[in-house]
Write a structure and sequence with these properties.
This protein is an all-beta fold and 119 residues long. The chain contains no helices and 11 strands. The strands form 2 sheets. Strands 2, 4, 5, 6, 9, 10 and 11 form a 7-stranded mixed β-sheet that branches. Strands 1-3-8-7 form a 4-stranded antiparallel β-sheet, with no helix packed on it. The model has no long low-confidence stretch (mean pLDDT 93).
């Protein structure tokens, strides 16, 4: 069983930065940040996995979003935020097999933290 507790969301103007944090308990195989905007499907923002802490993220977000994992705390540094980044952001953890970029791989989810970017 993995428990996840997120923090760090909020409102920011376009071009600003936010850092999300997720405290995790238990062993995980991969961890990730997902986001979901109203009326849209949940999408992966970034994932981190393996002993070497490999990371993957969609090409459109690279250079702006950075995922990290240290001492069981998952973080997401978000820079140069845009109104299109407005969404509920979720921390997720997987303990069993499956691709770390797939939403259906993850069985443990945080409660979500809202990020709102105004123009």
């Amino acid at each position: 069983q993995v428990q996840l507790q997120e923090s760090g969301g909020g409102s920011v103007q376009s071009g600003g930065s936010l850092k999300l944090s997720c405290a995790a308990s238990g062993d995980t195989r991969c961890m990730a940040w997902f986001r979901q905007a109203p009326g849209k499907e949940r999408e992966m923002v970034a994932t981190i996995y393996g002993n070497n802490r490999l990371t993957l993220s969609p090409s459109a977000l690279r250079g702006r979003f950075t995922i990290a994992l240290e001492n069981n705390r998952l973080t997401l540094q978000m820079n140069s935020l845009r109104p299109a980044d407005t969404a509920m952001y979720y921390c997720a953890a997987a303990t069993t097999g499956g691709g770390c970029t797939r939403v259906d791989t993850y069985t443990f989810w945080g409660q979500g933290t809202q990020v709102t970017v105004s123009s």
